[in-house]
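Writing this down once: the sequence line spells out the residues, with the fold written below as integer tokens. This is how one looks:
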Amino acid sequence: MKSSEQVDVTNTPERRILDLSQIGMQSALSLGRFHYTRVAPGIRKQCHANWLVLQYALRGSHSYYVDGKSLEIRGGQGLRILPGEEYSSRFQKEQRGDLVWLILQVNPLPVGADLGMTETGVKDVFARLLDGELPAEFLFGEDLKASIEEVFGAWERRRDPLIQELIRNRIASVVLASALCLENFEAEEMESQNSGRVGEVMRWLEQNIEKELTVEEMAKVAGLSVPHFFREFKRFTGTSPNDFLLQKKVDRAAVRLAEKPPPTVTQIAHELGFSSSQYFSTVFRRYRGMSPTEWRSARSPSSPS
């Protein structure tokens, strides 16, 4: 398990991390973002004694295992990982999508003014963010997302003193907005979104996952035009209806592959409405990073393939 408190600022073609110490920030250590256009290795188990990690799903679905609980966030949803909590992707791969994270130093807490706030304001904000009685997940709005985008857009000009002030201001806005999101959040609020039209379609997809479904059929269930439904579905889930359906089919297939005795790959492909076992294997690899047979062997080495 990775336990080092050294901030990782290594950039890759799919991952960009901003070292906020370069502009003189103290409690805000780094702002990172990954943009995956394909399945990528999951997050290895980590635990940070002195950091608060705030994650923001901009697009796609992201599943994590935090302190013994399985959690999933989608576009417009955030996740708090408190100091001392273990987290990882467990057996999951990182799916296609966009995720941003902000790392805050909280042990020790800032002394005096910080993040453009008064000493009292800083204490109040961090008290809210570190409140273990509040839910781990929260909903965030377009204003928070806009602040994040502005930071990444301005970073290359960070040597300009005014741009530095702008970046520090926007980071402070993200921190404050996150605390306010928690204040306004009720545990039922996120679930209540599923009672709407998109949620109704999501439940319908789960119940009919073995069929070949079209966007036109989904829009009809939602009672919306196809363009309107497509926009609303993507706004809520962070992904397209077809992509969501394929993800759910692969999730169901992964469960079936773990059964004993396991069904054959061809049987599962047929059950889930794939036109062929070859196409099923291609889709499975896209979302899990390995073939169905490799997945089954990795979880049950003694099982026949």
Remarks:
- The domain at 15-191 is CATH 2.60.120.10 (Jelly Rolls).
- The longest strand covers residues 28-36.
